[in-house]
Amino acid sequence: xxxxxxxxxEGIRSTVTVMFGHIEEPWELAEHMRVVRExxxxxxxxxxxxxxxxxxxxxLLGRTHxxxxxxxxxxxxxxxxxxxxxxxxxxxxxxxxxxxGLGRRHRGTPWGVQ
Length: 114
Known about the structure:
Elements: H1 2-9, E1 14-20, H2 26-43, E2 46-53, H3 60-65, H4 72-86, H5 97-100, H6 102-108
Parallel strand pairs: 1-2
């Protein structure tokens, strides 16, 4: 966090991400959103937020923990929750067609818009 904050202070903007849909707990996602929002409120340096759902195929984590890919509906719900948690602090929140499929990406764009 110190490196990101220092970079933003020097005018270097960045993207922020979150990976979800694997072995995380809901409180961990909530804490991540809290930290991201607070940092953005202090620095204004994030240009976009990119939620990335975990794709378990051919991964050790998927095999050893029995992690299955989350549904597209769950992906949309997470996207909406992230948008609501961040409010208007970050100018752009992606709904990734790579992770959600092109049709769902278009559906996901307005989810959670206030």
